[in-house]
Design brief:
The protein has about 425 residues and is α+β, with helices and mostly antiparallel strands. The chain contains 16 helices and 14 strands. Helix 1 packs parallel to helix 3, helix 5 crosses helix 12 and helix 5 packs across helix 14. The structure holds uracil.
């Protein structure tokens, strides 16, 4: 077998047998296949697609490229949760501790900010003293003792995805359903949980543009998870507008703490409770998450988790020195708040990284004062920008103001959870 022959098969629209896919992945990992050949193959996959059998073989080859976490020392059904990424998406910070407070064991490996979307690890690291680098023994002990740990993936897990992802990022080969599905699911399978709840986002602030493509991705990921013996459920949720009221690391941790005290944005609470319910269902836990939320036990579990990872909440979350309101130039009803523009503004404020080596500013971001459905008059604040200087804040105010679309008519918030996908197929989100 040689790489030219295998790339040619995909170029011509033929189905790879599993050994061709293993040949490519192991060859690339050993640097026997260079970037330019792998990039040619990735582009052929983007254009020609892959069958379910090929996507499964790719996922398996990626899992086999590194270590797989053994969680058998944790009793019970372990449930992981994963979002495909969004703006203001702090669902993990609320739903995962809430599920743990209900009795679910939650061993969660998370990622960092990617492009304009936020990352759970960056958010958690805004808590003074907190570490996300937990050795497997400490990670397992914490899940046993506290019910939840949220940590960074070890560099020894799924190294093939790390290499491929970096190559895809610079060769315009990210948006491909089989490539995204195998990338996400190889990491979830290697992370070792028995069951997985996926939050597949679509819309302006997400990688999937519409419900149909998000459903297709969700179905593919569910099939891969179930094929690997993991119970898998996906929710397809909207990401046209930012989720909740804050975007930025420390701001989102504070919003999650408030939501866990029952003081949350209605849409945020709706999706968090739904994700928690799905996690409980997969774990066979009958507890009602809403009751647990009202009892304050979810917040207590979150605080115990932060403390177990070295976090010192009592020292206070970082606060930006400059806070500036962005005001409406005219009155109206808020029809939409462009999640992509808000994500890009947050990135420019320092909430994410423009270059790999950039340091995230934990206090940077913005608070949404006028969400979808609100009525504003000229001069009312749309958002408050949190920045390290007036100069940085001034750079983004125009972009932020332009993200708001106002209407003369009253606006109702659009539905947030559009569909649920499990091994039996797609059903309405409701
Ligand atoms: N997140 C991932 O982990 N992989 C992708 O390909 C896209 C989003």
């Amino acid at each position: 077998m040689n790489p030219l022959e295998v790339i040619g098969h995909k170029r011509d629209g033929r189905e790879h047998p599993p050994d061709e896919i293993r040949f490519l992945i192991t060859g690339y990992l050993r640097s026997e296949i260079p970037d330019y050949q792998m990039a040619a193959w990735l582009m052929a996959v983007c254009i020609r697609g892959m069958t379910a059998a090929e996507t499964l073989a790719l996922t398996q080859a990626m899992v086999a490229s590194g270590e797989v976490l053994d969680l058998s020392a944790i009793p019970g059904i372990k449930v992981d949760k994963h979002s495909t990424g969004g703006v203001g998406d702090k669902v993990t910070l609320v739903a995962a501790p809430l599920a743990a407070a209900c009795g679910v064991k939650v061993p969660k490996l998370s990622g960092r900010a990617l492009a304009h979307t936020g990352g759970t690890l960056d958010k958690l690291e805004s808590v003074p003293g907190l570490t996300v680098d937990l050795e497997p023994e400490r990670f397992i002990r914490q899940v046993r003792d506290v019910g939840i740990a949220v940590a960074a993936q070890s560099p020894l897990m799924v190294p093939a995805d790390k290499l491929l992802y970096a190559l895809r990022d610079v060769t315009a080969t990210v948006p491909s359903v089989p490539l995204i599905a195998s990338s996400v699911m190889s990491k979830k399978i290697a992370a070792g949980a028995d069951a997985i709840v996926l939050d597949v986002k679509f819309g302006r602030g997400a990688f999937m543009p519409d419900v149909a493509s998000a459903e297709e991705l969700a179905a593919e990921m569910v099939e891969l998870g179930e094929g690997a013996g993991r119970r898998t459920v996906a929710l397809v949720t909207a990401m046209d507008n930012p989720l909740g009221r804050t975007v930025g690391n420390a701001l989102e941790v504070q919003e999650a703490l408030d939501a866990l005290a029952g003081k949350g944005d209605a849409e945020l609470l709706e999706v968090c409770l739904r994700v928690t319910r799905e996690m409980c269902r997969l774990a066979g836990v009958a507890t009602d998450p809403e009751k647990v939320l009202r009892s304050g036990a979810g917040r207590e579990t979150f605080e115990r988790m932060l403390a177990a990872q070295g976090g010192r909440l009592e020292r206070g979350l970082p606060v930006a020195p400059v806070q500036v309101a962005v005001k409406a130039e005219a009155g109206g009803h808020v029809e939409s708040v462009d999640a992509l523009e808000i994500g890009l503004a947050a990135l420019e404020l320092g909430a994410g990284r423009i270059r790999k080596e950039d340091r995230v500013d934990p206090a940077a971001g913005l608070v949404i004062e006028a969400p979808v459905g609100a009525q504003v008059r000229a001069g009312d604040p749309l958002a408050v920008v949190h920045a390290r200087s007036h100069e940085v804040a001034d750079r983004v105010t125009g972009r932020i103001r332009n993200a708001w679309r106002l209407s003369d008519r009253e606006v109702r918030r659009p539905p947030h959870i559009l569909a649920r996908v499990d091994k039996n197929g797609v059903s309405a989100g409701g």
